[in-house]
Design goal:
By secondary structure, the chain is α+β, with helices and mostly antiparallel strands. It has helices spanning 11-20, 50-59, 70-74, 77-83, 93-100, 102-111, 125-133, 158-170, 233-253, 287-293, 298-307, 310-313, 378-390, and strands at residues 2-8, 25-31, 41-42, 64-67, 88-89, 119-122, 139-143, 152-155, 176-180, 185-193, 198-211, 215-226, 260-269, 272-279, 323-331, 347-350, 354-355, 361-362, 366-375, 397-398. The protein is built from 13 helices and 20 strands. Helix 5 (93-100) packs across helix 6 (102-111) and helix 7 (125-133) runs antiparallel to helix 8 (158-170).
């Protein structure tokens, strides 16, 4: 039986581990969390401690490591493991920089002349203020690396933008990224690659704002559905040719081929595809949905990319004809008992929430869990999903009610 180590501790790792456990394998998580510990063995090694993780892998004869944590990628877990002959599915720090550094991403898109948005990267507040005076509004203002909701904001006025930039620098941020906000349909195209060849997994429609109708604060993700019926084969082919293949070829020429899952965040605006960001793995809010329609054996697939046999072994990927809809459930307060989770039929992907002495789930401020429902059609999946959401009760429950709302007969 193969041993698989998953490095990370968020909702996407929970979803991945559940998927891996459907195969004949032993799954270990580092560091994991209280919810992951219910479905897999957890070892108390932090993601940044790559040398300690390597020692664990060597001592415990781990067959494959899957590093989905941006912290681990940034600390070059892939480079360390590869240099020590250990099989790992993850990009090196140099290849993955475009996924964890927004400034590196924006500069990379600009250098390759890939259609994107006007942006500025600033290390001093006054330079950012000067830029904002003539900038198009709304402006998306974010830190360079953090992915927390409190470190991003869409500002519609110079005054609000200036105040937020000041707040970020006062909190100790050393680099702030400003970019034009683009109106349109947001989606992510996920591909799997060995650094030389790439095959699409699926396109996912994204919901990033907290409130219905794309209002409120900008979050890392509030919901999603897949497949995204608005992304035609023509659009997918254009993203593969103009963005994915262009990026992978540039990284290969640089001597830093990208191994892993690469997500390309895009906006479809008047039939124009604008690239915004890159993701180093499936995102927390859509991971379960993508995995639910992926029929390939992930262990075999990940190993093929890691050892270099991907191009010989795969021409296409087995993706089911099912559809999946996901919704992130937030809480405005903490330490409230969550009722109804045991009765839902949707897949539950947990963030690090805890239980009390009575084994009842307790809320945390912000994201608590993701519900995902899979069915033959998007409309059916959506209906069943919201029936399950209605059955969950706790003080301060918050979620979007318009995920996949416009879909009919899909």
């Amino acid at each position: 039986m193969k041993k698989i180590l998953v490095v990370g501790s968020s909702a996407k790792e929970y979803a991945l581990i559940q998927k891996l456990k459907t195969y004949e394998c032993e799954v270990i998580a580092a560091p994991g969390n209280e919810r992951i510990a219910q479905i897999a063995q957890c070892v108390d090694i932090r993601e940044e401690n790559t040398k300690e993780l390597l020692e664990f892998v060597l001592e415990n004869a781990v067959d494959l490591t899957v590093a989905t944590s941006q912290t681990a990628i940034k600390n070059d877990i892939a480079g360390l493991f590869q240099s020590n002959g250990q099989m790992i599915f993850a990009p090196t720090a140099s290849a993955g920089e475009i996924t964890y550094s927004r400034s590196a991403c924006k500069k990379f898109l600009y250098k390759l002349r890939i259609p994107s948005v006007r942006f500025g990267v600033f290390e001093k507040p006054q330079m950012a203020f000067d830029y904002l005076k003539n900038a198009q509004m709304p402006q998306v203002i974010r830190t360079d690396e953090s992915s927390n909701s409190c470190d991003r904001l869409v500002c519609t006025t110079f005054s609000s933008a200036k105040t937020f930039v000041e707040d970020l620098f006062n909190r100790g941020e050393t680099k702030v990224v400003l970019e034009d906000y683009v109106y349109g349909h947001e989606f992510t195209l996920y591909v799997i690659t060995d650094g030389y060849n790439a095959i699409p997994l699926t396109a996912v429609a994204n919901y990033k704002f907290m409130e219905d109708g794309d209002g409120g604060i900008l979050t890392p993700g509030a919901g999603a559905f897949t497949p995204d019926y608005k992304i035609t084969q023509d659009i997918l082919s254009r993203v593969m040719k103009n963005v994915v293949n262009n990026v992978l070829s540039a990284l290969e020429r640089r001597g830093t081929p990208y191994v892993g899952i690469l997500g390309v965040d895009c906006v479809l605006a008047d039939d124009k595809v604008i690239a915004l960001d890159f993701k180093s793995f499936l995102s927390d809010h859509d991971c379960q949905a993508v995995l639910n329609i992926t029929e390939e054996n992930l262990i075999t697939l990940f190993e093929a990319c890691a050892v270099g046999s991907f191009a010989d072994d795969y021409e296409t990927l087995k993706i089911s004809d099912n559809s999946a809809v996901s919704c992130v459930i937030f809480s405005k307060t903490k330490d409230n008992v969550i009722n109804g989770l045991d009765d839902v039929e949707s897949d539950i992907t947990f963030f690090p929430i805890k239980k009390n002495e009575y084994l009842e789930y307790l809320t945390v401020n912000g994201r608590n869990f993701v519900l995902t429902r899979t069915a033959k059609t998007l409309s059916r999946a959506r209906t069943l999903l919201y029936e399950d959401i209605d059955g969950i009760d706790f003080a301060g429950k918050k979620y979007r009610t318009d995920i996949c709302l416009q879909v009919e007969n899909f």
